[in-house]
Structure formats: structure tokens, C-alpha cells
Design a protein that fits this description.
Layout (H helix, E strand, L loop, with lengths): L1 H19 L9 H11 L3 H15 L18 H23 L2 H17 L21 H18 L5 H22 L1 H4 L4 H17 L2 H9 L9 H7 L11 H21 L8 H15 L22 H14 L6 H7 L6 H12 L11 E4 L8 E7 L6 E7 L13 E6 L2 E4 L20 H7 L9 E2 L9 H4 L5 E6 L5 E12 L2 E11 L5 E10 L4 E8 L3 E5 L4 E2 L5 E2 L9 E20 L2 E20 L12 E9 L2 E10 L1 E3 L4 E3 L5 E9 L3 E8 L4 E7 L7 E7 L2 E7 L2 E4 L7
Antiparallel strand pairs: 1-2, 2-3, 3-4, 4-5, 6-11, 7-8, 8-9, 9-10, 10-18, 11-17, 12-15, 13-15, 14-15, 15-16, 16-17, 16-18, 19-20, 21-22, 22-23, 23-26, 24-25
Helix pairs in contact: 3-4, 4-5, 4-6, 5-6, 5-7, 6-7, 6-9, 7-9, 9-10, 9-12, 12-13, 12-14, 14-16
Length: 734
């Protein structure tokens, strides 16, 4: 019997030794760790990144790390402590592999043993408010975050633990969390959503760290292992073929980390999957699509639920860049981003980026360009056009959003436009109403005003019909339909364009919008916006322009409500807008000029028949001051079919130091709608210097090879090509 026990013990130890030799396997292997260790002394950025981590972790060496009983929502002590703990675990584990200092492994072991004692005792978090409650945190998403980093930390240090300690940690710290996520929250785990990406990555990394094939298979193929959910399905369903992410740029920033970290681990453990080659290198496409959807300062465009302060220096993007450099090869376009991040991951890719930055002159900006992204798995559910003009700090970016809804984080803003110029947001999108990590503001969660105002149509620069949001703010209904792109041309220097229509936002109204970024012969930038609402019934149409700047002048007289104000409306977001001024106009050119930073911007609007104009500002019915106070200018028309023709003009310069101002008045002097029918919309424009031009938009034939002919004021113009053209002809009488 003693011999049998001895043989069993020896066999187990041999098996353990064989398994131990496979670790680490999630973040990097021993050979990569050895190479990175040598490079730390060679490359300043890699050394800086190493030292920053070491400085933070060394504060905890020899000290007791609190693993508290969960009780607080986001921003509270226990929430923030557990967040800090999983990063401390991961960073300490990295340092153990790069220094061979056993103190770092001991820190990891001591904390994980505390979680091994705590986690089996946990029930639903006391502050949970959603259908996917967490245990360590108020929502399961954060528990998945914990699993991602804690699992890698365990994998990186388990060779320093005893067999008994490994067993205790696997069964106590990880098993309860994995079973909770995959069984109690089975439906949530299998959801195709950024939450599901994190959940799959967490469970999969836990499986690789503990040698549990069941966990890995569930992570890859869903709890039923049929491939309808799981990590592969997330890659197949959340991205368009060109890399656009369904929930928008803010959330690709968040989801890209678990995508890259788990894929990186699979590259080590399951190389036969060729995960980084999946869907024509979809993860590489996603990274660059995300970066193209940022401003000059690196901030992600605030589409859908987005916090405007988030930029590409976040930990998620640092992680993605370093791994992408390692698996996809050197990419000079990433270096301006990495330089601004000023840190790299302590892996092969991070070392490669640090080496490149040390050896070359890095450009200031990421290589932004005019680019168009499709939406949907097949790329046929609308899309996003980023129309850019200029270079360097003078870059302008016009964003035309005609995507599908964007899952649970989508907004009701079909055919929305946003404008950036010289790094400043000019025509704005509110983003989301949330104070992340601020406990006093609804526990750091989305505030009620996020649904009640920020996601409603009036909070965006698109038409609102009868003061009712698109799809009546019904997420399920919105998810069943998508806009249709009509045409686009983003690569012509003096005229770039995109046009799309939405047939389902309202039952009896078709919305069509064409945006044209025009460079005049003088070099001046104009954006022509032709927005039609087509209906056989009478409606009220509101077109807001949310702007960022100080009002300078208007071409019309208005009544300002300086002594008493009331909300613009009672529902669908209108109740949150103070009505600050109004005007009634008829048969005129309406112009509104505002100043942002040192540049003037004018919105010139053609009014045929009559219109009402409003100046409004967010903040009404907001006793807790949850909303930012931001202005907007609203054009209201009534009738059946209505066409809004607007020109947004970039002009002039203010120098507050020298106290000089130039070209502060708009150059657009006259606008005429020369034709507007099912075949053509023709807009004539006269500039301040007398120069006149006509923009022709085709409404029924969107091919790029057609032979076209139009007669304007008895003058025939013919061309072959796209469904729009800019015509200069002094014979026109505009």
C-alpha cells in the first residue's frame, strides 16, 4: 500500500512538473520574458515602463494588501480596492518574471490566497442594479476584468507555488467566479456584446492558467460549445469586415483589450487556431479603425454612449498596440500613438516599439485620412464616413454617422453629423451622461439622463420629427433597421461627399442627407449639408446644431428670454433644453456665427417660406446638475416634405494677444435652391467676392459611370461620373 501511494505521489509530481513547464503561457513564455528582460536596459521607453510598474508595486512589498468584503458601487473603496488589486497582481507577476525576485511571486500568492478564502463566500453584490450582477463588483463585467488580470497573474507565478497552494487558489479564487459567470449568468456570458468579450477572455484565461480545457472551450465556443456564442463568435459578429466595431469607437477602445489579451494567450496555447489571422486579420483592422475614429488629441469620437475624456493613451490601447506590433509586425503608423502613450507593454511588441521610437524620428500625429467604414457582419448595415481635409494641426474631420443602432450602447441619431477642426470639437455630440468612478454620481454608473437626454435624437445634429426620437427611442425596434448609404467619394481634394437615407426612423417620413466637404478656390473650407425629410403628411421638423463656442452674431433679430426661461418641450429629451431665445423668419438667408478658440464658424441656412429658430441650452429639469451646459441652434420647419440646406463655413482668425481679428464675417452671401425633385437637388451659392457656384446632387441614380445631363436656368451641363458635381458658370443668375 505504501509503495502504491508512493507511485501515485511520484506520478502526480511528474505530471505537475510537466504542466508547470508549460507556464507561463498566457501573457508570454519564458523565452520572451528573457528577451524582454535584456531589452529593458537598452531602450528608454521600455525601461521607463518597467520602472513605473516597479515603483507602484514596490510600495506593497512586505505589506498587507486588503481584500475587503464587497459593498460599494463604482467609485467606492471596496470597488476601487479590488480594481487596484487585480492590476497589482498582474504587475507584480510581470516583475517576478523579469527580475526573478521571489518577493513579487509571494505578493501574488498571498493576495490570491485571500481571494481563495473570500470568493466561495460571496453572493450577489449588495449594490447590484442590473440583470448581470457581480460578486466582487456591482456588475459582472468588473468580475470578468478581475478574472482576466488575476488569471494571467496566477499563470505567471504558479511555478513558484506549492501543489497545495495551486489547488487552493484554483478551487477557491477562480472556480467560484468561473461557475458564477458561466452558469448563474449563462445568458449574459453568451451575449454578443463587449461584456461577453470580457467574460470569454476572463474564463478562457482562467482555463489556460489552471489547465482547465472545459473553461477554454466554453470561452471559445460558448457555454453550449456550439459556436453560436463565445470568443470566436464575438470576433465574427461584433466587427464589420473592415474593422468597425458595432458599439462605436468608445467601446472598441474598451473591448479591444480582452480581444487582444486572450488572442495573445491563444497564440501561445492554441497556435493551430491562427487566431490573429481570423477574418482577414480582423483584430488588426479593428485597431486601426479605432485609431482613425479619434481626434488630433487622441480622444475617441463621442458616438453612442461615450465619455469624451477617453483617448488612445488608455491602458486598453497600450495593450493592443504592443501585442499588434508583436504579432502583425512593425507598423510605423502606430509610433505617434505609442509616443503619446509614453509607455509600452512589457512584452516582445512593447520592446519592439521602444526600439523603433529610439531609432527613428516619430511624426506628431497618427496618419489620419478620409476613410469610410461599413457596419454589420456583412458590411451592409449602414456605415460611418470620416471626411478629412487639411494636414497636421489644421486637420478638419467631418463625421457622418449612418451606422446601425450599436446594441445596448447605441443612440437614436440616424444620419448624425459631428465636426472637428484644428483639434477642437465644433459641431458636437453630447456622448454619455456618466461620471465613471465617481461614487456620488449614481455610483459611477450611467445616470438616468443618459437615456432621457443623451441618447435621444434632439441631443444630436439630425432631424427630429414631431419632437419624437427616432424609432420612438425603442432599442429593439432600432436594432431591426439600418440606414442605407446612397453614395460617397472621399478621395477628391476639393469635393468629398457622402450621402445616406433612413426609411424607418419614422413611420411615414423618409430622411435623406448629403454632406459635401468643399474646398473653395481660395482654400476656404465649406460643408454643404442637404437634409430632406420626405412625407405625404404634415409634420414638425427640427434640425439642431449643437455647437461649441461663443455666439458672435446673427443675421436675424430674436427675442432673448433673459428674465424667465422654460424648457423647449416636455419629453424625448426636449425637457432638458432651456429655450433661451427664439425668432420667426421668412424667405431669407439665416446666418449664425460663433467663435471657437481662435477661429470663426458660421452656419448659413436657406429658409424658403417660413421657419422658427431657437437658441437652447442643456440643463433644464436637472436639479442634480448632472448635465453639462451646452448650447445649440435649432431650425424648425413645418409641412409635408421639407429640405434643409445649410452651409457650415470655417473662416477668419482671432488673435487675443495682438488684439486683431480678420475675416470674422462669413463669405457666403446668397443661397438659392434652384431645383429640388426626385431627380436632382441643385443649390446655388454666391460668395462675398462675387464668385458663384452650383452644387448638383442626384437623387435617383447613384452610379459612378453614368452619363448625366441637367439644365439649369436654360444652361445645359453634362458630365460622366458620380452623382454630384460642383459647377462654376458665370452665366448663372444667382
Amino acid at each position: 500500500m505504501r509503495i502504491m501511494r508512493l507511485l501515485v505521489t511520484i506520478s502526480f509530481l511528474l505530471l505537475y512538473s510537466a504542466l508547470a513547464a508549460q507556464h507561463p503561457i498566457t501573457f508570454f513564455d519564458k523565452a520572451e520574458a528573457t528577451a524582454v528582460k535584456k531589452d529593458i536596459a537598452r531602450y528608454p521607453l521600455l525601461r521607463h515602463s518597467f520602472n513605473e510598474i516597479k515603483k507602484d508595486v514596490d510600495l506593497w512589498i512586505g505589506k498587507d494588501v486588503d481584500v475587503p468584503q464587497p459593498k460599494d458601487p463604482a467609485g467606492g473603496y471596496t470597488h476601487e480596492r479590488h480594481k487596484a488589486n487585480y492590476m497589482l497582481l498582474f504587475n507584480s507577476a510581470l516583475l517576478y518574471n523579469l527580475t526573478n525576485d521571489a518577493r513579487y511571486a509571494k505578493l501574488v500568492k498571498d493576495v490570491l490566497l485571500k481571494y481563495a478564502a473570500l470568493n466561495p463566500t460571496l453572493q450577489k453584490h449588495p449594490q447590484a442594479t442590473s440583470s448581470s450582477p457581480g460578486r466582487l463588483f456591482w456588475q459582472a463585467l468588473n468580475d470578468a476584468n478581475w478574472l482576466v488580470y488575476s488569471s494571467m497573474a496566477f499563470d505567471l507565478t504558479r511555478n513558484a507555488f506549492t501543489v497545495a497552494e495551486i489547488k487552493t487558489i484554483e478551487s477557491g479564487a477562480f472556480k467560484p467566479e468561473v461557475e458564477f459567470i458561466t452558469k448563474d449568468l449563462k445568458r449574459w456570458f453568451d451575449l454578443l456584446h463587449n461584456h461577453g468579450v470580457w467574460a470569454c477572455a476572463g474564463v478562457g484565461l482562467a482555463g489556460l492558467a489552471t489547465g482547465n480545457k472545459e473553461y477554454v472551450d466554453m470561452a471559445l465556443y460558448g457555454t453550449d460549445k456550439n459556436g453560436k456564442s463565445g470568443f470566436i463568435a464575438q470576433m465574427d459578429n461584433l466587427f464589420a469586415p473592415d474593422g468597425y466595431y458595432a458599439e462605436g469607437p468608445y467601446y472598441v477602445r474598451y473591448a479591444i483589450l480582452p480581444f487582444y489579451l486572450f488572442a495573445n494567450a491563444l497564440e501561445h496555447a492554441r497556435p493551430e487556431l491562427k487566431i490573429f489571422e481570423h477574418r482577414n486579420r480582423i483584430l488588426r483592422r479593428a485597431l486601426h479603425a479605432g485609431l482613425q475614429q479619434t481626434n488630433l488629441d487622441g480622444r475617441f469620437f463621442p458616438l453612442n454612449d461615450a465619455i469624451k475624456e477617453k483617448d488612445f493613451t488608455t491602458n486598453e490601447m497600450v495593450t493592443a498596440l504592443s501585442i499588434a506590433w508583436a504579432v502583425y509586425g512593425k507598423d510605423p503608423g502606430l509610433l505617434p500613438v505609442a509616443k503619446k502613450q509614453n509607455r509600452v507593454l512589457l512584452n516582445k511588441g512593447g520592446a519592439g516599439i521602444a526600439a523603433a521610437i529610439a531609432q527613428v524620428n516619430v511624426p506628431i500625429h497618427y496618419p489620419y485620412e478620409s476613410v469610410e467604414y461599413t457596419d454589420g457582419v456583412d458590411g451592409k448595415q449602414g456605415g460611418l464616413s470620416l471626411i478629412r481635409h487639411g494636414t497636421g494641426d489644421s486637420l478638419s474631420t467631418l463625421i457622418f454617422k449612418y451606422t446601425s443602432h450599436g446594441l445596448s450602447h447605441g443612440h437614436f441619431d440616424r444620419l448624425n453629423m459631428v465636426l472637428y477642426d484644428k483639434g477642437n470639437e465644433i459641431l458636437t455630440d453630447y456622448g454619455s451622461v456618466r461620471f465613471v468612478a465617481v461614487e456620488q454620481k449614481y455610483g459611477g454608473r450611467y445616470l438616468p439622463e443618459n437615456d432621457a437626454y443623451a441618447s435621444q435624437t434632439i441631443a444630436h445634429n439630425t432631424i427630429v420629427v414631431d419632437e419624437t426620437s427616432h424609432f420612438n427611442a425603442d432599442e429593439k425596434l432600432a436594432g431591426q433597421h439600418h440606414p442605407v448609404k446612397l453614395h460617397s467619394s472621399l478621395y477628391s481634394g476639393d469635393l468629398q461627399a457622402a450621402s445616406a437615407m433612413e426609411n424607418n426612423a419614422y413611420k411615414d417620413v423618409q430622411l435623406r442627407r448629403g454632406l459635401y466637404f468643399v474646398e473653395m478656390h481660395t482654400g476656404q473650407k465649406l460643408i454643404v449639408d442637404i437634409f430632406s425629410a420626405v412625407s405625404g403628411n404634415d409634420h414638425q421638423y427640427d434640425l439642431p446644431f449643437h455647437y461649441n463656442g461663443q455666439l458672435i452674431s446673427t443675421s436675424f433679430k430674436y427675442d432673448a428670454f433673459t428674465n424667465s426661461q422654460e424648457p423647449l418641450g416636455k419629453r424625448n429629451g426636449y425637457q432638458f433644453l432651456w429655450k433661451e431665445a427664439s425668432a420667426a423668419v421668412r424667405d431669407t438667408l439665416v446666418q449664425c456665427t460663433f467663435l471657437n478658440d481662435k477661429t470663426y464658424y458660421t452656419i448659413s441656412s436657406l429658409v424658403q417660406d417660413s421657419a422658427q429658430l431657437f437658441f437652447a441650452r442643456s440643463g433644464a429639469n436637472d436639479p442634480n446638475f448632472n448635465l453639462r451646459r451646452e448650447p445649440c441652434f435649432i431650425i424648425r420647419k413645418k409641412g409635408k416634405t421639407q429640405t434643409f440646406v445649410n452651409i457650415v463655413e470655417v473662416h477668419g482668425k482671432l488673435d487675443p494677444v495682438l488684439e486683431t481679428s480678420s475675416s470674422s464675417a462669413p463669405s457666403v452671401r446668397r443661397m438659392r435652391l434652384l431645383r429640388n425633385d426626385e431627380q436632382f437637388t441643385v443649390t446655388g451659392v454666391v460668395m462675398a467676392d462675387g464668385f458663384q457656384w452650383v452644387l448638383v446632387q442626384c437623387n435617383d441614380d447613384f452610379s459612378y459611370s453614368a452619363k448625366r445631363s441637367i439644365t439649369i436656368q436654360g444652361i445645359v451641363h453634362e458630365w460622366t461620373g458620380g452623382p454630384f458635381i460642383k459647377i462654376y458658370d458665370p452665366r448663372f443668375k444667382l
